[in-house]
DNA sequence: GTGCATGGATGACAATTGTCACCAGGGGGC
DNA sequence: GCCCCCTGGTGACAATTGTCATCCATGCAC
């Protein structure tokens, strides 16, 4: 019997996934978490064989949960289940010790199958996405990412400067650098491109 | 027996929801659609009692499917199941003849319950969201919305002008108007605010 | 027909944004 | 030690963006 912990912030989807897995006779859903903090706590308490987790969750992302469990060298194997086919996410997931990266776009039958493979010590990663993930590295520095993120929220250069205690000119330099690295037309375009790659 | 058609673009979620409903003895999932066009076609062919549909789907949105079915005065009742608590979406859903508006954030037990209520001729709408939907109307004109949408994609004013066959100054006027109507700081802020309300 | 709202356009102006060159300190890596 | 990269900063300049007043059709209401 493979013991599974599910983490997903949309309650409806969480319940539906649980019902999907409960059909499988060799799987047992031992816990459900609605955010990253709960997921980490329950993973420690329950030590499931496999944690199936979303990436984007309030409080703590699935990537952070995975990294935390890895740091504690927990035996729990991790399946990332996400909406986003973003190379940067996959890369960070693997760095954080995940064993599988599954898209919510893929057929529901694949979830149970992936859990079994992972529990048996294997890995499940989409080959095309993997190729993309290694071909192109995130070119942004931390500062550039921060500045870009704030500008995507609608802050002006002056606002960003104030928020990060930088000078206005420096913020414009970072933004300009990010725009040029990404081959974008302006800050909005740059933010969109970075988001699509999972770098933001 | 209530005959249900499910429409949802994320295959994993679609399968999971089907498994969730298959547990209920008084419900029968008669079809699954992966996009809006399929949903409309299957709704016509199968004439289910209830269509449960996502809003944001490729090709044709759930709102458009609902509107099309309403135009054909189909008896099928509609449950919108979406991630977004956006007043504008709820309003458009009701205008399009939907009987329920459910969030993916709400507990999974509520789905079957909502389907039963709707099949019996009732409505299921979150009261706080409903209040919000009627308190604040979409202030944007069609042109303003179009221009804002393109600017959110990273196009410059000149690009937008070319795309819509308008003059550069006119585009800036619309943008300025939208920014002021929304009380935003700039085009990025305006787009974010409009998106959050479901007006974009 | 007069009045008036709407869509589209100008021109002018200020503010913001994007680019570039260049400077300086601090950590690594080799 | 030297080189390179990251951070942070200036100053200057051009391009884009945002604001306003104003204008002209069109079409609709009365």
Task: Give a written overview of the molecule.
- With 200 residues, chain A is α/β, with parallel strands linked by helices.
- Chain A folds into 2 domains: 2-133, Rossmann fold; 142-197, Orthogonal Bundle (Arc Repressor Mutant, subunit A).
- Helices cover 54% and strands 14% of the residues of chain A.
- The first copy, chain A, has 10 helices and 6 strands, in the order E-H-E-H-E-H-E-H-E-H-E-H-H-H-H-H.
- Chain A has helices at residues 11-22, 36-46, 62-71, 87-95, 109-119, 127-135, 142-152, 157-164, 168-182, 187-197, and strands at 2-7, 27-33, 50-53, 77-82, 100-103, 124-125.
- In chain A, strands 2-1-3-4-5-6 form a 6-stranded parallel sheet, with helices on both faces.
- In chain A, strand 4 (77-82), helix 4 (87-95) and strand 5 (100-103) form a beta-alpha-beta unit.
- The longest helix of chain A is centred in the C-terminal third of the chain and has 15 residues, at 168-182.
- The radius of gyration of chain A is 19 Å and the shape is elongated.
- Chains A and B meet through helix 1, helix 5 and helix 10 of A and helix 1, helix 5 and helix 10 of B.
- Chain A binds a DNA duplex (30 and 30 nucleotides) through residues 141-143, 156-158, 166-167, 169-170, 172-176, 179-180, 186-187.
């Amino acid at each position: 019997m493979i013991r599974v912990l599910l983490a997903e912030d949309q309650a409806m989807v969480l319940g539906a996934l649980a019902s999907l897995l409960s059909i499988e006779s060799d799987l047992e859903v031992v816990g459900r978490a609605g955010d990253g903090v709960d997921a980490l706590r329950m993973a420690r308490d329950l030590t499931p064989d496999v944690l199936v987790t979303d990436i984007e969750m309030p409080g703590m992302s699935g990537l952070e949960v995975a990294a935390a469990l890895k740091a504690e060298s927990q035996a729990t194997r991790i399946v990332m289940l996400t909406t986003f086919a973003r190379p940067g996410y996959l890369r960070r997931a693997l760095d954080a010790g995940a064993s599988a990266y599954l898209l919510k776009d893929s057929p529901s039958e694949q979830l149970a199958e992936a859990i079994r493979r992972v529990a048996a010590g294997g890995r499940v990663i989409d080959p095309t996405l993997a190729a993309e993930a290694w071909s192109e590295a995130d070119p942004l520095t931390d500062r550039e990412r921060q500045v870009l993120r704030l500008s995507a929220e609608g802050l002006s250069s002056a606002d960003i400067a104030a928020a990060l205690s930088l000078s206005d000119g420096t913020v414009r330099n970072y933004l300009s650098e990010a725009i040029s690295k990404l081959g974008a037309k302006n800050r909005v375009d740059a933010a969109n491109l970075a988001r699509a790659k999972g770098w933001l």
